[in-house]
Every structure is written in C-alpha cells, then in structure tokens.
Design brief:
The chain has 133 residues and is mostly helical. Helices cover 67% and strands 0% of the residues. The chain contains six helices and no strands. Helix 4 packs across helix 5. The radius of gyration is 17 Å and the shape is elongated. The model has no long low-confidence stretch (mean pLDDT 91).
Length: 133
C-alpha cells in the first residue's frame, strides 16, 4: 500500500510532467522553474491523515499553532476556511466537515517546500535519463 507521501510525490511528478509537456517547443527545461510551477499547481488531494488534520485544525482554531508563515500554515488555513464554509452551509461539526473536505476536495497547491519540489523533479529527470539509456 502506498503512503500519503508516496502518493503526493507520484501526483507531484505527474504535475511536473504536465508542466514540461506544456513548455513551448524548443524551450530549454529549467528544473527549478518546473518544480515551482508544479508545486503551486492544484493538487488532487490534501496529503494528510484525518486525525492529524483534525488535531492541527483544533490547535489552529485555539490560536496555538506555532508555525512560521509558510506552506504548512497555508495548508492548515486553507483547510480551516473550507471546513468553516462547509460547517456554515450544513450545520455540521468540524470532524464531519473535515472528513468531507479531505474525501472530496482538491488542494489549491501541493504545499511542499521549494527544496523538496526541486529534489523530486531531479529524481524524475534522473529516472527519465536512465530509461533512455
């Protein structure tokens, strides 16, 4: 069975392939640019477990989330906004809203660090080069 990180990486590498495929003909591939473009593209899922996300949202809602203003905080804030909107529409509680969001909605981006994105693209390029030889 594939882990959430393995699933995210596979989806991210598919996004990288799309970015490279959509480059204008003859344009040189800048892997850092490919990595960031793909990382900021919509992701099919939020790659976190229900229990971890619920715990993080509760900490966020109580003002005790000690994260810098970075991609991880952006992930929890996005999930919180979506959950709050769903809760106001349906009258349900946070666990039900979170379950719905995690099961049925996509993320606005992959929420991965630039260094991680670049490393994954380099892995894709290395695998592609190995397959050609």
């Amino acid at each position: 069975m594939m882990t959430l990180v393995e699933t995210r990486n596979r989806h991210f590498l598919e996004a990288c392939r799309r970015v490279m495929r959509d480059l204008p003909a003859g344009e040189e591939i800048n892997i850092a640019k490919v990595a960031m473009t793909a990382a900021l593209s919509p992701a099919p899922h939020y790659y976190c477990t229900f229990m971890y996300a619920l715990r993080m949202l509760r900490v966020l809602r109580h003002g005790r989330l000690a994260l810098r203003r970075d991609r991880r905080l952006a992930l929890w804030e996005e999930l919180n906004v979506k959950c709050a909107a769903y809760m106001s529409r349906t009258g349900c509680k946070l666990p039900e809203a979170l379950g719905y969001i995690l099961a049925s909605e996509s993320a606005s981006q992959y929420f991965i660090a630039p260094a991680t994105a670049l490393r994954l693209v380099q892995r894709l390029r290395a695998a592609s080069a190995a397959a050609r030889s």
